[in-house]
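We both want to read discrete structure tokens more fluently, so let's practise on a single case. Would you supply a protein for us yourself, any chain you care to pick? Would you write everything just below, so we can both look at the same thing?
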Amino acid sequence: MHCDYVQFKPKSKALKTAPELSESEKKGLRMENVLVVFSSFEAGDDERVIAQAAAEVRKNFNEVKADAVLAYPYAHLSSNLARPENAVALLNSFLKHVKLFAPKSQKSPFGYYKEFELKCKGHPLAELSKTISMQAMETTVEKLGAKTEIIETAGREKEETSESLKQESKLKSEFFILTPKGELIPAQTFDYKGHADLKTLVDYEIKKTRAYKEEPPHVRLMKEHHLVTYEPGSDAGNMRWMPKGVLMKRLLEKAINDLSVGYGAMQVETPIMYDYEHPALKSYLNRFPARQYIVKSDEKDFFLRFSACFGQFLFAHDLTISYKNLPLRFYEITHSFRREQSGELTGLKRLRAFTMPDMHVLCADLKQARDEFEKQYALCLEWNLDAGIPIQATFRSQRDFFDENKAWYVRMVEKIGKPVLFELYNERYAYFVTKFEFNFIDNALKASGLSTVQIDVENAERFDISYTDEKGEKRRPLITHTSIPGAIERVVYAILENEAFKKKQGKMPSFPLWLSPTQIRIVPIADKHHAYCEKLLGDLDERNVRVDFDDRSESMQKKIKLAEEEWIPFIIVVGDKEEATGKLAVRIRGGGQAQMTAKELAALIEKEAENKPFEKLSLAKQLSQRPAFPG
């Protein structure tokens, strides 16, 4: 735990063999800006375990910038404790290792009951848990045709690290800026004047600092608006969505579904877990840079899907495909799972379970693949502009592929109308020869990938996917991998972060009207207006608008204030005049006030949200009937 402070005082012996304490040790200790390491030493632990444990602590210590470490023996973490004399030796050795990088570090007495007090800082890296054991350190398995490393975390879970992920970490690449004029300028020499977000993206990509020092603002907003929160009963990175958040999520899913089907993609659904020993999947796992969740069934190992790729590839393998069917587009939207490193999990930005709309397109040749890539690039650009999300583009490519297709890349850069980051590498570490991502820069000046398109040159062969050409001969297609929005959770993250940035600039934050959980809030001036408010509620609820009624026993002023804190776009205030004339006093978020009928207001909202999906909110229309959600 990264703490503002910790203090402890020994009270009595827990072990008869515990050594006597000196006078200074009896007084206890207080330390500030300290990384407190509660630790148990288990049977079988040795110096190799201690060295690895110190290395793990060092990484976290450097990330949180603590001043010292407190090694605090804590027997309650294990039921397989080492003998006391061995545990004392291991504790002393651990402290010796730690003092090499944190000289001010201390330990608390072993074998004593102690009173202690601490204040945990509460940022995303402030609380972590790790288990290091000889069994995990010595275990390697021969799978997928190559060695796959198994790391034991939290005592039970297995995290599989693919060869591609290892190769990506070792990859040597160069970063450039590609301008709309076709200039390719080394990133370190480019003039970033007027391109501050691009400079932030470049720094983020080169330095690869993923962890947050403090909680990003979207986490506070997602809780305040009762959209989504953490689920303590699940693994980290698996979230609890509340009705308002579910509504926004479903609307985004419906919008991307309509866009994908409108583009000509067939919608399919495939399983969420797959057999490790399936012949086509063995090699693919090692070509995808992601860590997997492992589950057992009937003594067999399965992995939870980290994308829809292999399900759709297995589907395509069983089809009879003609060149006349190409480009052939598949689309799916469902949960995916990636066992991201715990220190990188952050709100809705980086999760272990997420909803990824995945499209794959079988293409006859490179020309068709480039055409699809460019069309999907345009769709991704349109999606983000329509959502109001400011983006920066990153392209990645093998150097020889870039040299052969530079004019094609420049044409896409011209469409976005500003310079982009370009990463060039000499060899492929994964299945794609090129890809692009649209990135969002958040309030902590960290980048997040949203949209992406890739050209896959391997998996048609791997999954035995073929089509029949004009001569009746079997050919292998190229495949584009596409996610037009990226993970749906990241879209919500980007919207919240962007509105937090607006608020910081003194502007009024708001949700896009079509995504607002409540679009109209009815507020009575007095209790005698409740009956008319109920009539209004019924009339408006028959239209494609989301409306509710604040019938709680609060003052009108407080109800308006609470509606504004919820970012409600339209607030109707109902009094005698409104009830008599039918002309409603409507407060418009960010736009003053207006007089209109209920019918006119509904028509205004329907027109502004035209061509967007609509769903009802699954909460009671009367606020007094809703439960209180945790904030």
Notes: The two ends are 23 Å apart (CA to CA).
